[in-house]
Amino acid sequence: MSLVLITPPSLEPVTLEDMAEVLSYGPAASLDPTTLSMLTARVTPLIVAARTACEDYLRQALITQTWELRIDGFPGYSTRYSRQEYPQIWIPRSPFQSIESFQYVDVGGALQDMPQDTSYGVDDATFYSYQLDPGSQTIPARVLPSYARPWPPTRLVANNVTLRFIAGYGDTASTVPAPILMAIRYLAQWFYEQGGMQDTALPTVVTRLLDPYRNLLS
Predict the structure, then answer these.
(1) How many domains does the chain have?
(2) Same domain for 130 and 77?
(3) Peptide bond into 95 cis (omega under 30)
């Protein structure tokens, strides 16, 4: 299984202007060109690193982004739901927004689109289809085969099932919970004061801010 970023976020939830204030430089608009250039070169990569570290810890996407999940076939029955026999696919980043495409390579080698069933198995016009559980902020979304139907057979090739999805709180920083923004600012400041990224666990204050929002995917 692999997870590939297709479309990165269009902006960072924490800006250089935010960090100039956090680092006690004052408003970025009042800085002389030399100081502003120094901050841009030093702090901008640290903002990206801090945001990425927080997203990885949360197992979330913050600003809207597109990901593709690639797996070598549909799953067997989940041991967690063995009694219900739900061979589900977890969508590994939350908050989930939508599925952009869901495709598989059939036994003949043709790429097929998997349609969504929203009829709870009542409409059986398409034999192979999926049902969607959108999850929540901390519970990942998942897809399952339609009621009383199996996943389709696939050709035994690498990455024969691909699910492209959109995740994130929204398109602007205002959609991201304030404690997560605080964690990114604190971590970027910590990186700055330590002289760069450190190969250690996240500071405790950061994890405490993030834990209430952490994706519960095991």
Answers:
(1) 2
(2) yes
(3) yes
